[in-house]
Amino acid sequence: MKKHILPAIKLTAVTLIFFAVLYPLAVWGIAQLAPNNGKGEITVHQEKKYYTNIGQSFTQDQYFRSRPSAVDYNAAGSGGINKGPSNEEYLAEVQARIDTLLITNPGMTKAEIPVDLVTASGSGLDPHISVQAAKFQVKRIAKIRNLSPQSLEKLIAEKTERPLIGLFGPEKINVLKLNIALDQLKK
Questions:
Q1: Alpha-carbon torsion 87, 136, 131, 182, what sign?
Q2: Exposure pattern of 32-50 as b/e (b: 16+ CB <10 Å)?
Q3: Strand 172-174 relative to strand 42-45, pairing
Q4: Cβ neighbours around 93 below 10 Å, total
């Protein structure tokens, strides 16, 4: 037994030093090479600072809505919902979101609603929506802002982020960037 204790203690010490000191320092050092020194991408709009890579709440009808958040867009603690698809409370929450979308987007049907407009992401902080979710909201925003749907479709196409090297992940749109561009479109 003595023969195994000393190597176990050594391994524990080496692992502790590596994962508690060296690895965090390496990650921190690499982050210093990134824009804004690894503190996230910050966007300033109308004299307010926003973290571009964290979901924001947009509830006004003249803006594109974000994906719902399980943590109310609070970046201090990300997390999803642990309720399954048969949970009655969860189903009622999703149905309320569907009803709200149908009221605020007249002329649209339940079948046209993209899933990302009624379900929260795994972290609750996803800053993106699908292209379909943005297009679903075009009629409402065009009517409220007195813009042509074609100009909004063009804006959506300009702000669409393509998959990484054309292969990894879906096309997506950062809602904050889209809404800032929407405000600038009017000017």
A1: negative
A2: eeeeeeeeebeeeeeeeeb
A3: unpaired
A4: 18
Query: How many Cβ atoms from other residues are within 10 Å of residue 156's Cβ?
Result: 19
**pLDDT(187) > 60:** no
Tell me the pLDDT tens digit for each residue of 101-111: 999 988 888 99
Q: How many residues make up the chain in this entry?
A: 187
User: What is residue 164's DSSP assignment?
Assistant: B
Nearest to 51 by CA among 59, 41, 60, 38: 41
pTM of the model: 0.78
Please tell me the distance from the alpha carbon of residue 186 to that of residue 184, in angstroms, as a whole number: 5
